[in-house]
Amino acid sequence: MTPSSRISATDINKWVWLLFVLPAVVFVLLMIIFPIAYTVHLSLHEWSGSATRPPTPVQFGNYENLLTRDPRFGEAVLRTFQFTGIAVAVELGLGLGIALLINGPFLGHGIVRALVLLPMVATPVAIAMAWLLMFQPTIGLFNGILKTLGLPPQMWIGSQDQALGSLILVDVWQWTPMMVLILLAGLTTLPSEPFEAARVDGASAWQRFFYMTLPLLFPTMIAAVLLRSIDALKTFDIIYTMTRGGPGFATETINIYGYVLAFEYFRLGNASSLLVVFFAIVLGISLFFVQIRKRWGATYE
Amino acid sequence: MSGVKSQPIQASLGQAEKHAAQRNRSALMISLGILRYVLVIVVVVVLVFPFAWMLLSSFKNQIDITTSRNLLSFTPTLNNYRNVFEQQNYLLFLFNSLLVASASTFFSLVLGLPAAYAIAHNKRMTWFGVVLLTARIIPGITFLIPWYIIFGQLKLLGSYWALILSHMLVGLPFIAWVMIPFFESLPRELDESALIDGASRFGAFFRIALPLAVPGIITAAIMAFIFSWNNFMFSLVLAGDETKTLPIAIFNFLSYSSVDWGGLMAAAVVITLPVLIVTLFVQRYIVAGLVAGAVKG
């Protein structure tokens, strides 16, 4: 026992630690817990936000509406999962490839690693503007390229069929770098001895990749997929600035629909019930991934 | 497998054939090396291209953007930038962005650093860390309706304070997220010996831990600043005409004049180029900050 541990065990010190922590925690709770409780409360009411007409209670009417009578919501949920699932899967595949490609030394690898950061730190609105110009059907770069290749021009985000795919393309460009960074960090923590031993024993590069790198990297991949999925589910900036959920409702995700309900239609009760459901979905997916990570992460540690 | 098979074969090889095999092998290595570079270049081009296109188009006049298919044959003009700053109220929006980002980063540090320090040093504080990190998981839009109503009732809607407080909800958890492992990695003995010498916990924090943590603090602050600078959704709902930040101004610019592509690109460059340049300068630290917590096995 050192003198210091006796000091830090005293009651005074406990209170000191609380002084350090409480301002931040109280702030976050005020900004999160209270608003969430308020959202739940509002979700049981009907309100247009007007000061003269207070919210009228409707019990679970909003939820009933949302889940049974509002096809737009069901489609938005499906679309959100489509967007997230495809984007994150592509990002994981590309990210793994790029991470392996730029792992280890080569001439200029510092510059490459720096450039990888740019899409994910750049201002989303600015990114959206650049992609809008490239997607533009008559003067855009992509149709210019298609034309030179002798292919028919496409509508990209202007078409109901291609809009979601085009936005996924932007998301992949923007967020594959995140996958690369996390997987690179995971790769550098792998022990080198087993790989040397396997090489000496005559394991081919493919064998080493499938039977060693992949399983050892699995926990990192789960973590990366978790982080990316949570963020992709919540994607707002790119979608709202590029399509506002259109054309029609072709790119309207849960997030966008919630925003539209609340701040364009001012149906605050409906919007609140949607947000409560969305909150539950995100929380459920997070817990699901945490469970997977606990189970599978431990196996390979 | 292949190792076992090749041994008897190799034994029967003559000296010349051995050399030939070696030559083949090194030829393979060289072509693999070239292939790697080709792939790396492809990746880099794809990553950088939208930025390059944005920058290039911002120097083109409307005719060059709409007609010329040729990438580089145009007379560069600064008119787009002049228009952005003269016709729009961009200096005000630039000021708003700087003010909101600086203030929200500053207050996030004031609240976040002591909290991260305590959570790193005291096991019983761990679950406070969990509270701080939930803000990263919950969809931001879940708070927006109550904030809109509450800030409205407090007559804060459209004020700088509404923006600063909402941006802090992004900055503060991020700062805690980066700084908890950073404080954990500092040698504990320095702190403890300061306490033995009679310093209070506050003294140890301000005079020992904070100075040692400066590199981590700078990274966390830069990232929090960039997150606030980039923020779109919170500002879209909470900002007023006089307090709107650059991302909202550019978004409105798009709605008013969807034809002026050169102006749009100039506006996009103005907002995102500073972020890119700063990132390139401090990239090593940023990577550590972004990846912190994700890789723990």
Structure characterization notes:
The complex is a heterodimer of chains A (301) and B (297). Chain A is built from 13 helices and 2 strands, in the order H-H-E-E-H-H-H-H-H-H-H-H-H-H-H. Chain A has 301 residues and is an all-alpha fold. Chain A has one domain: MetI-like fold. In chain A, strands 1-2 form a two-stranded antiparallel sheet. In chain A, helix 2 crosses helix 13, helix 5 crosses helix 8 (163-189) and helix 12 (254-263) packs antiparallel against helix 13 (268-299). Chain A starts with a helix and ends with a helix. Chain B has helices at 2-12, 15-58, 62-66, 79-87, 90-121, 126-137, 141-153, 160-185, 188-196, 201-212, 214-230, 233-238, 246-256, 261-281, 283-291. Chain B is mainly α and 297 residues long. Chain B has 2 domains: 2-58; 84-291, MetI-like fold, CATH 1.10.3720.10. Mean pLDDT of chain B is 82; it is low at 1-10. Classes of the chains: A mainly alpha (301), B mainly alpha (297). The interface between A and B is large, with 100 and 98 residues.
In terms of topology, how is this protein built?
The complex is a heterodimer of chains A (301) and B (297).
Chain A: H1 3-8, H2 11-43, E1 45-46, E2 56-57, H3 61-69, H4 71-102, H5 109-121, H6 124-135, H7 141-148, H8 163-189, H9 193-200, H10 205-233, H11 237-242, H12 254-263, H13 268-299
Antiparallel strand pairs in A: 1-2
Helix pairs in contact in A: 2-13, 3-13, 4-8, 4-10, 5-8, 8-10, 10-13, 12-13
Chain B: H1 2-12, H2 15-58, H3 62-66, H4 79-87, H5 90-121, H6 126-137, H7 141-153, H8 160-185, H9 188-196, H10 201-212, H11 214-230, H12 233-238, H13 246-256, H14 261-281, H15 283-291
Helix pairs in contact in B: 2-14, 4-14, 5-6, 5-8, 5-11, 6-8, 8-11, 9-10, 13-14
